[in-house]
Structure formats: structure tokens, C-alpha cells
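Quick start: read one record
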Amino acid sequence: MRKKKNITDTILKILQKFTRFTKEQKWFIIYLAVLVFFVGLFPIVYVNGIGDTDSYSIWLFSSVYFKTAVFIFLILGVLVGWNISFRFKNLMIRYLGFRNDDNLINFFLLWVVVVAFFGITDTLSVINGVTSRISLTFWAYLIQIILLVGLVLNLWLVIKDAKDNGKKAKIITMQDQDEYHHEVGEKDKEQLRGLFSDKE
């Protein structure tokens, strides 16, 4: 009974947290759930058998692609944590210097996943041109489409946010850095003078 109650409470907390998200955050969390589902559960490679050898499929999270799979799922884990956990987000901002811009972070992390996954599929396409035994599955093409859709939508959201907020990237020059350090230095000097000043 306690286990069922704990599971129910956990589900209710997750649903309650989900209702507090913005519309964009809700859609992206659903998108991530779909992406993780397809990447984790469906094979991406099909190998035809020869003679007595049986045909078989290869999943991303298998011994063949283990290192790449760990890297991809780690990035997906960071994406999930960034979008559903405020504690995780604050941790990333504090210790890794991540900017508190959901759409921008989502875009760049998805970009990394796209590069890794497309590297696998492009290599397999080359191999398929040499031997017809190895080919991509329908699910591999579907995952490619899902990744591209997410990447394009996030790029659109980044551009939209930049226009709405009037954000413009500024190139920091050596002169800007010198001015910044000069201002900081002057403030430090004023604080030191205040420490030894007789005025109260």
C-alpha cells in the first residue's frame, strides 16, 4: 500500500510541476519523451543473414555503439534535467556557467546529438553502398526526422526570443576588456579607501 501511495504521490508531483511550465516548455518535454522513446527502444541498423547466418538488428544502446550511445544519452539526460528540474538548472548555471536561456541551451545540446547520430547514419549509408547486407532501419530515418524537426523548431524559438527581447550579441574587444578591468579596479580602490577613511 505504501509503495502504491508513494508512486501516486510522485506522479501527482510530476503532473503538478508540469502544469507550472510554459507552453513551449511543455511541448519540448513531450518532444524529449518521444525522442528518448524512439532512440532507446527501436533498432537503427538491419543486417541481412548469409546462408545459415540469421538476420539481426542493432540498437543504438548496444555493444557496437556503446560509447556513442552513452554520450548521446548523457546529452539527452542533461536536456531532460535542464527542462524539468529547477535544481539541476541552477546547478548547471552556477558551476558550468550555462546561460539561463532554455531555447538556446536546448538548440545547442540537440545540435550535438544530431551531429553524433547523423555521423552514425552517414557512415552506415557509405557501408550500404559497398554491401547490401547492412542497411538503416525505418526507425533510424524516423529518428533523423524527429531530431531535425526539434532542431529547426528550437532555432526558430531562439530567433523569436532574440527578436522579442531585443537581444543582440556584442563582440567583446580588447578595448572593452581594458575598460571593464579599469572600472573594476577603480571600484576596488574606492572600497579600500573607505576601509581606511576616518569619516563615518
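Residues 2-170 form one domain.
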